[in-house]
Fold:
Amino acid sequence: VEGVAIEMWSPFTGPHGDEMTALAQRFSSENTCGITVAHVAQPEYVQKLEAGAAAGELPAMTAVHITRVAQLAARNVLKPFGAEAMAVLGDDFAGEFPEDLWGPGEINGERYSIPLDVHPLIMFYNKELFAAAGIEEPGTEPWTREEFEDALTKLEASGATPLSLGTAFQGAALFQALIRQYGGSLTDEAGATATYNSEAGVQALERIKELRDKYTPDISGTGDPEVNVFKQGDVGMVFHGPWWISDLQQLDFVGFAPLPTIGDQPATWGGSHQLALTTDDPTTQAAAAVWIKWLSDNSAEWAAAGQVPARESVRSDPNLASVAAPISQVVESANMVVFPAQAAGLESALWDQFGPVVDGYLAGDVTDLQAALDEAAARSQQVIEENKSLFGE
Structure:
């Protein structure tokens, strides 16, 4: 693997992209094998990879969302880790990760991806408003439903807006968290049947609408307006992705905690970035594995960009708090995420259909929620069936 040059594509832009580029440069200067890594941000990475595969112009590897692994493996864009690459990672490597994170990277008995991080929906809260309302700040465990309800009551009594809730991404991500908090799921375990039109699905959306109607009925649309309202300092809480950490931690009043239990049991929505190979050349694969292992070893620094490290040893490292204090507050969130089944194209088969129902219901345009969810689930089911023939499953 001496002197191999690796090009890695990724969806990382902004601060994330800068952080990954800095890590790649550090690895390139520090490793003793003379391996160099060039990080190239590709916001539309799935389309770029599929086009690159068709033109025979792929990089050595890519970072990929966990929900895209099956599709890119089915299209032969991602290549399984060969014996040489796995030998570099070592026999004990798999044991470093929670099974929920390690499992989805294996398809048909072959390893297609290595987990780097988890990005769960978390709670950002206003420490000053909490203090003024007499609310004890949350710890690293998710609040119980009673604690959450109590905070809403106290914030309202103090004259603050307790919660900022929007539509678009936030509404749909919260729906996916709450359907599980109420004991339901988006699909069956195999990802073959859409199940989000259940009683839990109805309950989840009714609760989100109730909270939104009460506190911030006018916030809607893309671009995360609910976060911008929270930034102004008059709102107690907002639920969003940890990619907002680097921005929000610059405000002295912001605290960080896991998503509270709003339903019956703790759960949250989340994604994961995984590292995957797009070459089957054994030498290049082995060199890429040296970088993957180094990046995993040093993933506390990646946490500074607002991601929970995938590795157990990095999550429990006392130094995490000094490198990425907000992440050390929300590590427990990563254990509350359940990823969709590894079926090609599954995430868009679901989200593209229930997303408009979530938006329509929160806006007051959908009156019969059960019927709307039933129709959406039937359309999801149709896409799931089409995907089977499309991706040859």
In short: The longest strand covers residues 5-10.
